[in-house]
Amino acid sequence: MTTTLRDIMRKRLETIDDSASVQEAAKKMKDKDVSSLIVVDGDGKPQGLVTERDLVTKVCVNNTYTSEITNKQIMSVPLITISSTSTPAIAVDTMLRHNVRHLLVIDDDKDDESDSKYFVGIITPLDFARIEEFPNDEVGKDELEKMLEYYI
Question: Which helix (H) or strand (E) holds 123?
């Protein structure tokens, strides 16, 4: 049986308002023990993603006050998504192509009137370390090893 992202993804998705300060985002990441938050607008619609990397590269290095910068100002856009039925090798390829470390996992089969995409989880390079076996094909093995070497 082929391993899919549904098998290895983390299902806990945390959100934060786009108008909230990045200081609030950092505190929430620490409190919830996550490395990213989905940034939502006033209606709760996903707008982007703020990651630990965003906090470091867009805020900390600029020596700015974290209480004065909003998540909307630093969030990564567009949201890069992948289907829950995709394989880890496809996820690795997508991460490398887009130079990202977080993919939002969607379930295209969900019936949601507001959007054809439904977020069901998130996948990061550390999730690949939990895979007990690598794919059978050499291309998949090479991509996973490349990703793990690059990020870990």
Answer: strand 119-123
Ordered DSSP codes for 126-144: HHHTT-SS--SSHHHHHHH
Instruction: Please give the span between the terminal C-alpha atoms of the chain, in angstroms, as a whole number.
Output: 27
Q: Going residue by residue through the chain, which has 152 residues, state the pLDDT in tens, using 9 for 90 and above.
A: 688 899 889 888 999 999 999 999 999 999 999 999 999 999 988 999 999 989 998 888 887 888 889 999 999 999 999 999 999 889 989 998 998 989 999 986 655 544 545 789 999 888 877 775 555 555 566 666 666 565 54
Cα distance between residue 1 and residue 7, in whole Å:
11
Place of tokens 């009137």: 113
- CATH numbers and ranges of domains, the chain: 5-151 (3.10.580.10)
Answer whether 0.85 is exceeded by the pTM. no
